[in-house]
From TrEMBL:
Residue intervals of the MPN domain: 23-149
Entry keyword annotation includes Manganese: no
Protein name: JAB domain-containing protein
Name of a matching Pfam family: RadC
Keyword annotations of the record: Hydrolase, Metal-binding, Metalloprotease, Protease, Zinc
InterPro entries (alphabetical): MPN, RadC_JAB, UPF0758, UPF0758_CS
Amino acid sequence: MTFKVNEIKISYREHTKMADTPQLTSSRDVAALLHANWDADTLALKESFKILLLNNSNRVKGTYQVSDGGITGTVVDLRILFAVVLKTLSVAIILAHNHPSGNLKPSQPDKQLTQKIKRAAQLFDIKVLDHLIIVPNGDYFSFADNGLI
């Protein structure tokens, strides 16, 4: 009896030279990049969760939308998040999600999710540098700046 299984292929291709990508040095840089690349039509409509994938020099390898949720929340599957992080060989990540309400205060679930991702990342020697909450008017809340990461 012969058994066939599916082949799994993992690849990553750079379409932009890393030297030409943004180098993030502050939460302000991160917030500006997020606002410039977030779909303005949905920022005030529904929650989404994204990650910024970084190399060892904090240059942006890319962004990935992990989840797209509802009006008051979104579900983040850590298996999907880390599949992307590992596939891109990223050494650091920045977490981000929006609050359509404009409220910058992180909820208890926001804090718990951040810590859960941080613990999982440690197993792979991946740094979680920050978690930003962005709101439609351009403001943001940085977990790192506020001692929560």
